[in-house]
Write a structure and sequence with these properties.
This protein is an alpha+beta fold. It has three domains: 2-46 and 282-453, no CATH class; 54-270, no CATH class; 476-540, no CATH class. The protein contains 16 helices and 13 strands. A six-stranded mixed barrel has the order 3-4-9-6-8-7. It has a two-stranded antiparallel sheet with strand order 12-13.
Length: 547
């Protein structure tokens, strides 16, 4: 029976190849869009998954509540690291990881630089590797960074500096001008969908500010992670954490009602308040919005299929009448029409896969290489495509099948079939829904475009046009050459002004603290500080309100 239905379905689809082509193209575009959105959502939801004990790993974060606003940081004060380990009950392991930037060199026997590169450096405590269950290619996590002036490299970094991972063990790197580091371990690269883009990890004992005692000094590069004891959740240590906050912040009268909270590992990528080392976050609201857009697109494609199928129904009325006279049951006709729909849907899925595969490189370029997706990365993708075929097949095929299988044989043979008012009303409703969805998506797109245009053209209070930012090597030797470099830049035709600064105005890479006004320390206000030279204001055309 199935073979007969398949033959009849193929014959009918070929006979009406114009309608078939339109339906296949319409569904394939909608399905390709859904697949791409699913791949993106799946990639975002996969961040930091598969880490051992992920349900017990938490990050310390810091909140402030000032009179005028609230502030948030992914980091902690340095003294909080040691104190939390001793005072908070329920912690099995804890480790700090502090980010910095510096020049890394590999030198030959004569002291000449073979490789010189500005790198992101992470100072880490040894327990960090055990908390996250990182895979080691050479050395052991318990011993790799126990000593000062030791460094562990990712496999990629080891190959870059020493040719291969095994050759790196025991070799030396120079950090900055004179800090010599011995390579004591090589670990496996973290995937792209990780909040930890770690390549060079230096022992925490090497960190020059590890003994800092400032409780209200919080740098965004200083993160702190804990592994709770087996069976414990964040709520189980709330009392102990509250006592820690009271003793170390409230009793010390630290500004802004500063306190620490716990953030689950799997929530880091979706945080709306706290950044991370990868600088890649997305809110759950954005993911839900993308899911709704995908649903709108596939429903629109299905409605288009339904409208074309019901419009074609009268042309197939005589076929239905003859088959009913020959003894076909209504359920057999429904199966026949659904078979045709599923064949169209399968063909659309094949084309959608091709379209999606072609679009993936463009999508990765759109996100500047910060995502890595593919049709064959995970079995769940095939499950999704199968579910999509079933969903679209039933959604697009059920109503036309019910309409066409319900024709009266006598009227159908005499070609006196007309769609009843109910059917006509439903078709009108479907058309209205289809156009409504299209209008909503178009309006949303226009609003986003206008908003982006507004953001790009809005006057920010400083001159951002024709200004080029250059990142300089982060070592003291080059700092001594700054003035000479500045003078040489000013000699270049077209260069009018040069300024050394920490960053551009409105950059998030700034420091903040409370401050003293007329000798009185203000506890309810935060001052944001940025380092810059005397030419900074004139270069960015900043207007002084006073002074």
């Amino acid at each position: 029976m199935f073979k007969l239905n398949l033959k009849i379905a193929l014959r009918n689809l070929w006979k009406n190849k114009g309608y078939t082509f339109i339906n296949v193209i319409g569904l394939s575009i909608g399905m390709a869009s859904c697949i791409l959105i699913f791949l993106f959502i799946r990639y975002q939801l996969s961040f930091d998954e598969g880490i051992k004990n992920e349900d017990r790993i938490y990050r310390f974060v810091t909140d402030w509540k000032y009179d005028a606003f609230d502030d948030y940081s992914n980091a902690v004060a340095i003294p909080a690291v040691k104190t939390a380990k001793n005072e908070i009950v329920g912690i099995e392991k804890a480790a700090a990881i502090f980010r910095n930037w510096n020049i890394v060199r590999v030198k030959d026997a004569t002291g000449k630089d073979l490789i010189k590169k500005d790198e992101t450096i992470y100072y880490v405590e040894p327990d960090f590797f055990e908390i996250f269950g990182m895979q080691w290619l050479y050395a052991k996590p318990t011993t790799a960074l126990n000593e000062p002036n030791t460094v562990a490299l990712s496999e990629t970094a080891a190959k870059h500096y020493f040719g291969n991972a095994q050759n790196a063990i025991g070799k030396n790197l120079t950090m900055g001008n004179k800090t010599l580091l011995k390579v004591s371990g090589v670990f496996k690269d973290n995937p792209k969908n990780s909040s930890f883009p770690l390549n060079i990890m230096v022992s925490y004992q090497t960190y020059p500010m590890k003994d800092d005692d400032c409780w209200d000094c919080v740098s965004s590069g200083n993160e702190f992670y804990i592994l709770l004891k087996d069976g414990l959740k964040a709520k189980d240590i709330e009392t102990s954490l509250a006592q820690f906050n009271k003793k170390n912040y409230a009793d010390r009268k630290v500004a802004g009602n500063q306190n620490n909270k716990l953030e689950a590992l799997r929530d880091i990528h979706f945080s709306e308040h706290y950044d991370n080392f990868s600088n890649l976050t997305i809110s759950k609201t954005q993911i839900y919005g993308l899911g709704i857009i995908a649903l709108f697109l596939i429903i629109t494609a299905c409605i288009n299929f339904v409208n074309l199928s019901t419009a074609q129904a009268i042309n197939r009325a005589k076929e239905v009448g003859v088959r009913k006279v020959m003894g076909s049951l209504r359920k057999q006709l429904i199966v026949q029409f659904l078979t045709e729909t599923f064949l169209v849907t399968l063909a659309a899925m094949l084309i959608a896969c091709v379209l999606a595969e072609l679009a993936i490189p463009q999508m990765e370029n759109l996100f500047k290489g910060n995502i890595a997706v593919g049709l064959f990365q995970h079995p769940i993708i095939f499950v999704f495509m199968l579910c999509l075929v079933l969903f679209v097949g039933f959604l697009a095929g059920f109503y036309p099948a019910i309409i066409m299988s319900g024709f009266t044989p006598a009227l159908a043979i005499k070609s006196k079939i007309t769609l009843n008012n109910g059917g006509l009303s439903l078709r009108k409703i479907l058309v209205v829904v289809q156009f409504s969805i299209a209008i909503i998506l178009i309006i949303s797109t226009i609003v986003v475009m206008l908003q982006m245009e507004y953001v790009q053209q809005k006057q920010l209070g400083f001159n951002a046009n024709e200004v080029m930012m250059i990142s300089l090597p982060n070592d003291s030797l080059n700092r001594l050459k700054h003035e000479n470099f500045k003078a040489r830049l000013l000699k270049i035709p077209g260069v009018n002004k040069v300024s050394y600064c920490q960053d551009a105005p409105l950059s998030p890479n700034i420091n903040s603290s409370d401050f003293t006004f007329y000798g009185i320390k203000n506890k309810d206000f935060e001052l944001r500080r940025m380092k810059a030279d005397e030419d900074y204001f004139s270069l960015f055309d900043l207007k002084l309100i006073a002074g």
